[in-house]
TrEMBL record:
GO function terms (MF aspect): (S)-mandelate dehydrogenase activity; FMN binding; L-lactate dehydrogenase (NAD+) activity
Record-linked Pfam families: FMN_dh
Domain FMN hydroxy acid dehydrogenase: 1-362
InterPro entries for the chain: Aldolase_TIM, Alpha-hydoxy_acid_DH_FMN, FMN-dep_DH, FMN_HAD, FMN_hydac_DH_AS
Protein name as it appears in the record: (S)-mandelate dehydrogenase
Any one of the GO BP annotations: aerobic respiration
Record-listed glyoxylate binding positions: 27, 132, 167, 269, 272
Active-site residues, Swiss-Prot/TrEMBL: 269
Residues that, per the record, bind FMN: 80-82, 109, 130, 158, 245, 267, 300-304, 323-324
Keywords for the protein's UniProt record, in alphabetical order: Flavoprotein, FMN, Oxidoreductase
């Protein structure tokens, strides 16, 4: 059996850690502060138990679900992630092809390595555009108009990054976007020649959506000016579905609903922003109670298995999004690795449903 065969998300991470430059691995894997938030995400999910139910006919099971009236082949999709092509050349398009096949939403990041127009085309329309508000908003609203023109039906406003969180692992490696090469980075890349050569041949990943606008994106630029007026202006400008991502407080969730937002995504940005933030799975029940049973509530952060997905659905999420583990799968074994891990997650979810007596997703 190949050493790159993936049987779990941890397999993908372990192989990726060996294959990626340290700087790139720690950018994908790292979290804010002393990373207690990432551990809290994991511990909160581990603390939830699923009670087996016996002697129920679960021989026929379905993981198909509906999201905003669209049928998806499974109740989990692809979270927006910046600079995915760092994990392997063409990673963005691998994710887009998977989204097209599974009919699940692909979150296309503001700072994707591939233009937003190409991403929705490759995903065959199964793509949501994720938006960061930055500066005075002028460039932000240009991207909104581009997304509308490209055919996006859902916009995801990420609101939990008023300032970029301090991630010591990135800082120790001198990680910046775009890359600035020094002797430490050169040595790091030289120690990982397979990744370095493939990346060199494909060309350095850049933030494609900004290159097309003719300016560089400043990752450290403040996004702190965004307020409720910003949201109202965006709601007026965007005719499709509007999701707000980065919600952890029930009062905030209720205010978003009252402002005409179509769904909220309970998330702490994978613990990459505020080390002390609660885990989304802990925040989920109160938010669900505040918003009612029929309002779309999505969740990401810390999900590592099909059982985790089922826990989130049972706890109150309508749909779950996966992030860094997909990049690890790509780094481990390219598109084949991505499909291996996705298949593992589907199998784990279906099997866990059988154990607890479910034939359909909650």
């Amino acid at each position: 059996m190949s050493s790159r065969t993936i049987h779990s998300a941890e397999d993908a991470r372990r192989i990726a850690k060996r294959r990626l430059p340290w700087m790139v691995f720690d950018y994908i894997d790292g979290a804010a502060g002393n990373e207690t938030g990432a551990r809290r995400n994991r511990n909160a999910l581990d603390a939830i138990t699923l009670t087996p139910k016996i002697l129920r006919d679960v021989s026929e099971r379905s993981i198909v679900t509906n999201l905003f009236g669209v049928k998806t082949k499974c109740p989990f999709g692809i979270a927006p992630m910046g600079m995915c092509n760092l994990s392997a050349p063409g990673a963005d398009l691998m994710l887009a092809r998977l989204a097209a096949e599974k009919k699940v939403p692909l979150g296309v990041s503001t700072v994707a390595s591939t233009p937003l127009e190409q991403m929705i085309e490759e995903a065959e329309g199964n793509a949501w555009f994720q938006l960061y508000f930055s500066g005075d908003g002028q460039r932000t609203f240009k991207l909104v108009d581009r997304a509308k023109a490209a055919g996006y039906q859902t916009l995801v406003l990420t609101v939990d990054v008023p300032e970029v969180g301090r991630r010591p692992r990135e800082l120790r490696h001198g990680f910046t976007m775009p890359f600035r090469m020094g002797h430490r980075q050169v040595f790091d890349f030289a120690m990982h020649p397979r990744w370095s050569l493939s990346t060199l041949l494909a060309g350095r990943p850049d933030m494609a959506n900004f290159l097309m606008e003719g300016f560089e994106f400043d990752r450290t630029e403040s996004r702190a000016k965004a307020n409720w007026e910003t949201l109202r202006a965006l709601r007026d400008r965007w005719p499709g579905k509007l999701v707000v991502k980065g919600v952890l407080d029930p009062e905030d969730a209720k205010a978003l609903k009252d402002h005409g937002v179509d769904g909220v995504q309970v998330s702490n940005h994978g613990a990459r922003q505020l080390s002390s933030s609660p885990s989304p799975i802990q925040a989920l029940p109160a938010i669900r109670q505040e918003l009612g049973a029929d309002y779309p509530v999505l969740l990401d952060s810390g999900i590592r298995s099909g059982e985790d997905i089922l826990k989130a659905l049972i706890t109150g999420a309508d749909f779950v999004f996966l992030g860094r583990i997909l990049q690890f799968a790509i780094a481990a074994n390219g598109e084949e690795g991505l499909r291996q891990l996705w298949g593992v997650l589907e199998t784990e979810l279906s099997s866990a449903m059988a154990m607890v007596g479910l034939t359909e997703t909650p």
